TrEMBL record:
Organism this protein belongs to: Smittium mucronatum
Record-level GO BP terms: glycerol metabolic process; lipid metabolic process
Catalytically driven reaction(s): a sn-glycero-3-phosphodiester + H2O = an alcohol + sn-glycerol 3-phosphate + H(+)
UniProt record similarity statement: Belongs to the glycerophosphoryl diester phosphodiesterase family.
Domain GP-PDE: from-to ranges: 31-357
Protein name, as recorded: glycerophosphodiester phosphodiesterase
Coiled coil ranges: none
Amino acid sequence: MLCKYLVTLSVLVSSAVSAECGWGTMDGNPTRLVGHRGEKAFMPEHTLGSYHMAAFESADYIEPDVVVSKDGVLVISHNEWLSDTTNIASIPKFADRKRSFSFKGKYININRTDFWIFDFTYAELQEIKVVQEKFFPYRPQYFNNDFSILSVDNYLDLIANVSTTMNRTFGIIPELKSPELFNYLNPTPNGRWFEDSLLSILNKRGFGANQPPASDPLMDEGDLLNQVMNIKPANYKAPNYKRAAIQSFDPETCQYLATQTKIPIVFLNNVTPMLFTPKGLDLISSFSKIFSMDKEILLTGPEVFFTLDKVAINQTEIAEMGGFLMPEQLMAEAHKRGIAMVPFTLNDSRQKLNYFCSQGRDPYTKFCPTNRKEEMYYYFNLGVDYMFVENIFEAQMLRLAFDYKVRYGIDA
Ligand SMILES: *[C@@H]1O[C@H](CO)[C@@H](O)[C@H](O)[C@H]1NC(C)=O
Ligand SMILES: *[C@@H]1O[C@H](CO)[C@@H](O)[C@H](O)[C@H]1NC(C)=O
Ligand SMILES: *[C@@H]1O[C@H](CO)[C@@H](O)[C@H](O)[C@H]1NC(C)=O
Ligand SMILES: *[C@@H]1O[C@H](CO)[C@@H](O)[C@H](O)[C@H]1NC(C)=O
Ligand SMILES: *[C@@H]1O[C@H](CO)[C@@H](O)[C@H](O)[C@H]1NC(C)=O
């Protein structure tokens, strides 16, 4: 699809870029929505409830975070510790398991006193129940203690089950958390026990063999309302592959995975300035075709973001790598290299926006979103290929409204 981009001069929904026709994503499809930890705006994250809700909200992908139990079972939790998201502190028989633990790797640094998931066997983990994080008061606590910690196999069964009952495709997008730690705890000759274990599970279920060659349409035509309501067009053919991607913040894990599987690799990074340059993107494209970063980098540009985030910038190195790319160039240069771009995380509208500019700490960035619609439209206009979202239904409705606007000229 040929589209031209115009800079709108309207002061309100911004000095942002707007598409003259269609979506500015790499393949012209609507931005894909990834349910962050399932639907954690309403359900305790990473539970059957959270994943089912993400499916009912028609998320394109449903995200689990993968860690490992004491006896080597791949299980799902965002943290390696249990106190924030489970009822562990109220289980007397486990009280003596609390301990301080520290681990410093190249890419991770853990140091806290807590209950650690890798101190519990899978059977013991089944005695623990998941609760909603307390930090976000509007999130319902009704479902606390209803759900258990899942294994990766439980998650994959659930996705397969809802795909069958709803007769539609949901993408899986597991993130390997702290590979350095879990490979250290589970030593093997190649030092890649964690990656190999996940791949073996996915390969057994046919994910490895059957990946799309390039473009992967959500449906054979892009009618989003039908997609949300699961009404398939007459010419619809279910994909003959399994929609999947594997994510990690660890670049060496991503590099290793890229040599072992056809499943697309999502490289996550919000700490390495030199990646946000032309040569940085060259480097990424050698092992990852999906690059995901703090959404703010795509708003302020890398220089302002890393400066305000107090990440040291080596200007000599940045110059050698071709200089920082501002958001629109970053998108264009990434797409030129076949890299899809993915901001994390677009929050529920009941949460305050916490951009540096919304906190009054960023005088440089001209456009500062003031609500979720402005925020989502900014990233849609930029042509991001996927986004991690919470309150998926809100995001769906805004995506639908944006779709009407760019494809049919109807302002919602
Ligand atoms: C871990 O944190 C504690 C308390 O903040 C500190 O005293 C200790 O030195 C830290 N340990 C390591 C290994 O960094
Ligand atoms: C998936 O469906 C099978 C067969 O009905 C059932 O035994 C299993 O418990 C289901 N698993 C999940 C996680 O939904
Ligand atoms: C699932 O959807 C496909 C595509 O629309 C359709 O051909 C098929 O009959 C559906 N299967 C069921 C069990 O409804
Ligand atoms: C900055 O980068 C240059 C070029 O890559 C390198 O030679 C130099 O050692 C770096 N400086 C620091 C402080 O890391
Ligand atoms: C948005 O969501 C992310 C991930 O859940 C969280 O870390 C961040 O604090 C949230 N932002 C706000 C303003 O609550």
